[in-house]
Amino acid sequence: MSRGGGHSGGSSSHGGGSSHMHSSSGGHSRGYSSSSSTRSSHTSRASHGGSRSGWRGRPYTRTYYRHGVPYTRTVYTRPLGCVSVFIICFTLLFIFMLARGCSSSGSADAEPRSTLERHPLSASACGEIDVWYEEHMSDRWINNTSVLKQGLEHFYDVTGVQPYVVIVESIPDVNGCPTDSEFTNYLKDVYDDVMPDGGHLVIGIFDNSGVVSGDYDWGFGCYAGKDAETVMDPEAREILLDHLERYYTDDSLTDEAFLARAISETGDKIMTVDKVQSSNVKTIVIVLSCVAVVALVVWFVIRRKKLRVEQAEADAEILGKDLGSSSDGDPLKDKYNVP
User: Of the N and C termini of the chain, which has fewer Cβ atoms inside 10 Å?
Assistant: First the structure.
């Protein structure tokens, strides 16, 4: 039996949306998704403008000297030219794309992060049992026990918590798909029946594709013993469920390999603290540095253009002014009374 109904080697496909997750004491479940009979990758997505001709900007007064006599005139700052507007738009677009790229690379497809420092559970708190899994399915999931056990043993080695996998297509006293709380309570009952102490973790997979035709349901849950909760805290349990959901939809993996890989990688993930803060600080520094550089360049371009405009207007006014209209007059003309 393969997840998704009837196809060997995990080659069938699934589609559907997952429901909300529910957490109880020591337990965690991720909701159940309705699916068709095949399995595929699961995914939990008019303008106007114008201008005002004649507007010349904000005026200010500037003093000039001609023949030693001061005079003033009003100077208008010019609106930004096309080149300046293009530079500003381009830089804003560049900053937006950079920030978006940093945000996307940091999200890592919204994968839950391991933010807590965890230490392996002591051997005295978890007495190893010989059985590693049980399944209650119409068609078998586990055909290669060694592949599954290898992944479970790796999790046990790095966390000190021995995992126990339960694969079911129905649970007692529940008709059809169980709710999150019903599935968590079922896993708690399994824990109480099988585990000799509080250092174990029961991982549940629900898939009723073998007992229904057409749409089917699937979901995941886990329940940790009291001692195991020091390692399998709510964040760690969420990371586990995320890995199970991710690899459940991987068509290249057999059922044993999907479980082994999801659980094994969860062990490595939760025992390592992600460097989230330093990564965020680095991103912020890069973005702010780019903003500062771009702002400086834009200011320089605008300032230079403004000075050019002012100088050109001043030169034009001085060159175009009638020499005879000066307030001090021409002394040679006055002396000889030249008209």
Answer: C
